[in-house]
Amino acid sequence: MPKPAYKRVLLKISGEALMGNTGYGISPEVLTNVANDIADVSKLGVEVAVVVGGGNIWRGSSAQASGMDRASADYVGMLATVMNAVSLQSALERAGVVTRVQTAIPMSQLAEPYIRRRAMRHLEKGRVVIFAAGTGNPFFTTDSAAALRAVEIGAERLLMAKNVDAVYDRDPKKHTDARRYSQVTFTDALQRDLRVMDATAFALCRDNAMEIVVFELATRGNIQRVVCGEPIGTAIVKDNQETRFS
After folding, report:
1. Nearest-angstrom CA–CA distance, 114 and 130
2. pLDDT of the residue at 2
3. CA neighbor of 111 nearest in space, from 92, 139, 136, 83
4. d(Cα 76, Cα 133) in Å, to the nearest integer?
5. In the chain, where do the E strands start and end?
6. What global pTM score does this model have?
7. What is the per-residue pLDDT across 40-75, written as a single tens digit (0 to 9) for each?
8. How far apart are the first and last CA of the chain?
9. DSSP assignment, residue 91?
10. Which domains are seen in the chain, by residue range?
11. Residues 132, 52: contact at Cβ < 8 Å?
């Protein structure tokens, strides 16, 4: 059996990653695969918390462009994350994993309210906890929610599961000579404007020494590989380490 490198992690899944090739909403195949991958990690004894985005259902920037005010658009986006969280909970429980959803906006018929100590107790009992509705405040992204929750629950790593396999020094779709980072420090990532996540979330991680791993979600087994310490994706590390290219 693989040996985990971490005891407790927070996994951030972008809403777009749940679409697969459907273009909108949730791909049942992707949802099942993600749930099975999380289940495999949970069964290793790792305590797993999850934050899911909502971009597969609602894009606040598009709503703003059509005339909706930012706060209202962000609140609708929070509701989209709850839809994704409840869907993922159902898939995880089909995979045999006891799961709880906690929301930053109270909605007692669907989920528990976010209570830090209760969330940590669930994790200690081997339950997967999904944090939904962002931070409960407009003007903050789900990246910020992931950084905040990771720090609050004492996660050892923040795992950013994306549609890209790593962090590059430039867009690899536009530049054939783009170089892939295997490891980059917080300061270098800022100075090189790598945009690993939004600035608020990144600052929170840096200030609290919350190291990050960016990797591709679509490849089956990648979550377990990261949790077991395999060098996939890109690690964003404290400044007393070095920046390396693959």
Report:
1. 10
2. 84
3. 83
4. 9
5. 8-13, 47-52, 99-103, 112-113, 128-132, 157-162, 167-168, 180-185, 212-216, 234-237, 244-245
6. 0.94
7. 999 999 999 999 999 999 876 666 667 789 999 999
8. 28
9. H
10. 8-245 (3.40.1160.10)
11. yes
Calculate the CA dihedral of residues 181, 186, 192, 194 and round it to 10 degrees: 60
Token representation of residue 8: 């407790």
SS3 label, residue 51: strand
DSSP string, 133-151: STTSSTT--HHHHHHHHHH
Pair of tokens at residue 39 = 């289940």
Please say whether the dihedral angle defined by the alpha carbons of residues 79, 82, 87 and 90, taken in this order, is positive or negative: negative
Do the beta carbons of residue 58 and residue 68 sit within 8 Å?
Answer: no
Copy the structure tokens of residue 133.
Answer: 């509705």
Q: Which of 234, 80, 60 is nearest to 161 (CA)?
A: 234
Type of residue found at 196: V
Name the stretches of the chain with pLDDT < 70.
60-65
